[in-house]
Amino acid sequence: MTADHAIPFGTQLIGRTEKALNAILDRQLAGTGITEPQWVTLTLTAAGGGLPTGTIVERVRAALKVDEARAREHLTELTAAGLLRTTPAGAVEATERGRAQWSAVRAATSLITQRLWGDLPEEDLAAAGRVLNTVLARTDGVLSAA
Questions:
Q1: For every residue of the chain, which 3-state class applies, written as one string?
Q2: Domain locations in the chain?
Q3: Which fold has domain 3-145?
Q4: Of 37, 78, 110, 121, which one is least surrounded by beta carbons within 10 A?
Q5: How confident is the model at residue 136 (pLDDT cuts 50, 70, 90)?
C-alpha cells in the first residue's frame, strides 16, 4: 500500500491489520492442529512457566474476550492434544511436545514480524504501542461495562 492510499487510523486500519496478521499466523499454524484461540492459550501457558489453572484461565479469558467456560475448553482441548498438562500441584504447563510446537511457530512468526516492523524507528514503534495500548484499555473498559 502506498502513502497515497494509506488507510487513516481507525477501525478499518486496526481491523485490516489484525486480519492480515492473523492470516500470517494461520499459515504458520497450518498442519499443527492448533487454532488461533488455542495458540493464544498455548502462548500464555508456555510464557507463564507453570501457573495455577485459575491464573491461566483468567489470562486466556481476558486475552480472548471469552467467558471462563470457553477459556477452560481451550485448556482442555490442548491437554487432550498432548500440548498441555496439569501438574500435581495444579499448575498448567506446556508439555515437551507443546513447547516444541510453540517454539517452532514462535520462531517462524518472529522472522516474519521482524521483516514487517523490525526496521521501523523506535520512536514510531513506541508511539504505535502507546496508541494501541490506549485503544485496547478503553475497549476493555467498554466491554467490562457492558
A1: CCHHHCCCCCHHHHHHHHHHHHHHHHHHHCCCCCCHHHHHHHHHHHHHCCEEHHHHHHHHHHHHCCCHHHHHHHHHHHHHCCCEEECCCCEEEECHHHHHHHHHHHHHHHHHHHHHHCCCCHHHHHHHHHHHHHHHHHHHHHHHHC
A2: 3-145
A3: Arc Repressor Mutant, subunit A (1.10.10)
A4: 121
A5: very high
